[in-house]
Every structure is written in C-alpha cells, then in structure tokens.
Amino acid sequence: PPEQAARMKKLQEQEKRQKVEFRKRMEQEVSQFIQATGEPRRRFQPMNKIERSILHDVAEVAGLTSFSFGDDEDSRYVMVFKKEFAPSDEELDAYRRGEEWDPARAEERRRLRELAAQQEEAELECGPAPPGPPNDYKDKYRHLIGSDAAKAAARTMEANKAYGCVPVANKRDTRSIEEAMNEIRAKKRLRQAEDE
Fold it and tell me: How far apart are the C-alpha atoms of 122 and 141, rounded to whole Å?
C-alpha cells in the first residue's frame, strides 16, 4: 500500500535527521573535550549501538582513541581518550571490570608485583637445587642405543650445501620478475585487443 510506503519513507527520513543531529551534537562535545586542558578522558552516557558507532567515528576523525565498556546493551557506554593519554592495558581491564581507574593504586600494585618477583628470584638463587633424576636415562637404554654407533652416525651426516637454494645453473628462466611481469601484461593486452 502506498500510504505504508510513504509512512516508511517519512520514518526513515526522520531517523536520518536524528542521526545527523546526534552526530553534530557529538562533534560539538568532542571538540569541547579536545579544548578542555585538564581532561585526559571523557566518559559519555550509555547509548545504543548506532549512537556508539557514530561517536567512535567522530572520535576517530578527531584523532582520539575511543573504547566501549559495559556488559549489557542498555548500559554500554563510550570513553574517549586524548592520544597522549591513551589507556594502558591495565586501565582498560579496570574499565572492563566496571571499576574506576586509579593510577596511584595501579602503581602500588605494580610495585608489589615487582617486589614479589624479586623475592621469588632471590629464593630460587639461594634455594636447594631442584631434584633431578637419580641416574641418566641413557644408561637404562644403553643396550638398545649403544654408545659409539650413534655418535659415529652423527659425525658422518653432512648437510646438503644447496639446501633451500636453487643454483643458477638449474634455473631455466633467467628473466627478472619485472621482465616476466611485463611479458605477461603484454600478452594480456594482446589478447584483449584480439577479443575486441
């Protein structure tokens, strides 16, 4: 029915207008954010998938880094970062867990991890030697593997000198890649000319 088609068209135009208006609003907000000197990152209100994709696009055009966070579709939101304050993996993980990012706490955690690693290293250095097998497994199988035969066999093996390389003498085609490609193109052109 024509009235349904007209209604659909009107709806689509309205949707398009809303997207354009939303994009303009986001462009203004992003440019305010860029001019705000004391603001390294900005968190936007939760928005739907289309709005988030528009905001990501605006941020990319403006030369910013942007990420979406939040588990379910209703609460997903976008965070925009200035390039010089791009988030570390730890910072991103905190947002993904739904936590606030605290650089001081992260630094403290990092120091504790380093300390733990140093202690572990120190314990390894002065600790007892790790227990090893009481005897050499080769002794157990000496009757099968022998002792001299394997060493002698290893000595006589010799690597093939040309392994992985084709000697020039064996190459039938001595043209360079450029020459070969030019020839192929010429044949193609000729074929096209004949077809026409």
Answer: 38
